[in-house]
Specification:
By secondary structure, the chain is of the alpha+beta class. The protein has eight helices and 24 strands. A hairpin with a 2-residue loop joins strand 11 and strand 12. The longest helix has 17 residues.
Length: 427
């Protein structure tokens, strides 16, 4: 039997709309945990005064998450469908945890946007759609959840479909072939089994939707880029950076460089072994989440946000870069000199907007204004950015997987963008 392709699906949407519950229900119905385990979760939920949260607790492993009834960090669970070996990423909806949501979304091939039918489109629904778009998630399906709370009313479902379609189109998604799945994750309607109560709906269940996503072409012919998510030091083994390979391939014996590294100039080493899910691999390719055991590099030399590349084709550490950004959500206006934090692949780096070059008409892409004094919500602009710490980013034209970023300030996502040109640092 051929190995199934890996496929990463992130669940996004507003806090409390039922993302974790939908995932928990799906894992329960596909036999990923037992009746006894469910009972245990139910007991914990009741003790914490969170009756009805038992399915969510499958993904929300952390004590604090259980007590607050929130997803804080990213949780990963595997599920094998007819077509794929799917890694499900449960991304936090709560706005304090958006940085984790950005990391999760940047690793995803597709997204399930969860919307509770009785609340409809909320603030985070909008933010998550824009982020998914900027982070390059081109495929989305919408789960319209909690249908039991409106008595499975088709009219209420249709109203949400209409509202979210408008929003998705604004963000540049094509909605004609998109599925909007009515469901009740808590009751178990349309998660893995069709429901009589939703007989008016003829589309796929949530689980069936997974196999309807098309497999993205893996950019294996591009140079190796593996942003580091975490670095472990394992006794008897050594330094093991972990992350998702964005482009290219990695094999034991490869000569690599990690950029920018603690030195800010990169550090070179060699790959001793590559492993995924506790198995040694002879090769890992774009799309794989792996741990890489490296020789010649200590845990103290590298950190989350660094990028592993082949020594022969390393990316540049940039002096400054030109970007096209969309301002999503700033309380006032953005002027020259603005200093937010950029989230790029797994890196978080403070940066300064050194030049506002022009604004564009978002509908046509034509120049609306040269050298604007400021940018406001809804503006699409070309700007120059200077990172205040060493940073690896690449041009959209050369490696779109390494060009996208989000701009965060005071706990929220202010803008999202892509790098279109850059000036390498000279050493």
């Amino acid at each position: 039997m051929a190995e199934k392709s890996n496929f990463n699906i992130v669940f996004i949407g507003h806090v409390d709309h039922g993302k974790s519950t939908a995932i928990g229900r799906m894992f329960y119905e596909t036999g990923k945990f037992t009746e006894q385990e469910l009972q245990k979760m139910k007991d914990i939920a009741e003790k914490l005064g969170k009756k009805g949260f038992e399915f969510a607790f499958v993904m929300d492993r952390f004590k604090e998450e259980r007590e607050r009834g929130l997803t804080i960090d990213l949780a990963y669970r595997k599920i094998v469908t007819q077509k794929y070996s799917v890694t499900v990423i449960d991304a936090p909806g709560h706005r304090d945890f958006v940085k984790n949501m950005i990391t999760g979304t940047s690793q995803a091939d597709a997204a399930i946007l969860v919307i509770a039918v009785q609340h409809g489109v909320m603030a985070q629904t909008k933010e998550h759609i824009w982020l998914a778009r900027t982070m390059g998630v081109s495929q989305i399906a919408v789960l319209i959840n909690q249908m039991d709370t409106v008595n499975y009313d088709e009219a209420k479902y249709k109203k949400v479909v209409e509202d979210v379609t408008t929003l998705l189109k604004t963000a540049g998604y094509k909605t004609d072939s998109m599925n909007f799945i009515p469901a009740s994750a808590f009751v178990g309607d349309n998660i893995t089994k069709k429901s009589e109560k939703l007989s008016w709906y003829k589309g796929p269940t949530l689980l069936e939707q997974f196999d309807l996503f098309s497999e993205p072409k893996k950019p294996t012919d591009m140079p190796l880029r593996m942003p580091i998510q975490d670095v472990y030091s394992i006794t008897g083994i050594g330094t093991v950076p972990v992350g998702k390979i964005e482009t290219g391939k990695i094999r034991p014996g490869d000569k690599i460089i990690v950029l920018p590294g603690k030195s800010g100039k990169g550090i070179s080493g060699e790959v001793k072994s590559v492993e995924a899910h506790h198995e040694q691999l002879s090769e890992a390719i774009a799309g794989d989440n792996v741990g890489v055991n490296v020789r010649g590099i200590g845990k103290q030399d590298i950190t989350r946000g660094d990028v592993i590349a082949g020594i022969d084709k390393p990316p540049a550490i940039v002096e400054e870069f030109t970007a096209q950004i969309a301002v999503i959500n700033h309380p006032t206006v953005i002027a020259k000199g603005y200093t937010p934090v950029l989230h790029i692949h797994t890196a978080q780096v403070p940066a300064q907007f050194v030049e506002l070059q022009k604004t564009l008409d978002p509908k046509t892409g034509q120049v609306a204004k040269e050298n604007p004094d400021f940018l406001k919500n809804g503006d699409v602009a070309i700007i120059k950015i200077k990172p205040l710490k060493p940073l690896v980013i690449e041009k959209q034209s050369e490696n779109p997987h390494m060009a996208r970023f989000a701009v965060r300030d005071a706990g929220q996502t202010v803008a999202a963008g892509v790098c279109i040109d850059l000036v390498p640092k000279k050493f």
